[in-house]
Design goal:
158 residues; alpha+beta; seven-stranded mixed beta sheet; 34% strand; single chain; two-stranded antiparallel sheet; Beta Polymerase, domain 2
């Protein structure tokens, strides 16, 4: 059974203690903004150059990476962890690309890691991608789960 709250607090503690800039994004940010669909993973973005600094603190929970991950939607530097049954995806935010389903082209999906909002979740105040940026991002990739998240985010934040 996954323990999202403990995994969230664990990874936030490591990132903050080691002064690694990060933001919550994707599905987890949608959850923070009000999406009610079941959570699959905790999504975090950080600058690529911090992966080596993070590795010693997470190596016992490593499932994948760090290495390039490529599928029909994403091309990015990725680490996948599993902590207390909860999957955590940490991706680089400097060299990542996404396939824009509107333009039918690959494009940079780099986000400004310092241009975030602070949101309280599970008792901690954490950096989260702005909801308008999250919606724009999800509009580009347009998977069914993204469309569902967009509707929930717009309903709760507009």
């Amino acid at each position: 059974m996954q323990n999202t709250k403990n995994a969230f607090k664990w990874i936030v503690g490591i990132l903050q203690k080691n002064k690694i800039p990060f933001q919550f994004s994707e599905e987890f940010a949608a959850k923070i903004y009000g999406s009610n669909r079941p959570l699959y993973d905790i999504d975090i973005e950080m600058p690529d150059r911090y992966f080596n600094k993070l590795l010693p603190h997470i190596k016992d929970y490593l499932v994948y990476g760090p290495q390039r991950y490529l599928d029909e939607t994403f091309d990015l530097l990725l680490i996948t962890l599993k902590y207390e049954g909860q999957k955590i995806d940490i991706s680089g935010c400097e060299t990542d690309k996404l396939f824009n389903h509107q333009t039918r082209r690959w494009e940079s999906c780099s986000t400004e890691i310092n241009d975030v909002v602070e949101k309280k979740f599970y008792g901690l105040t954490v950096p989260v991608i702005k909801w308008k940026d999250l919606v724009a991002y999800k509009e580009k990739i347009r998977r069914p789960i993204d469309i569902e998240d967009i509707k929930a985010i717009l309903q709760k934040n507009c």
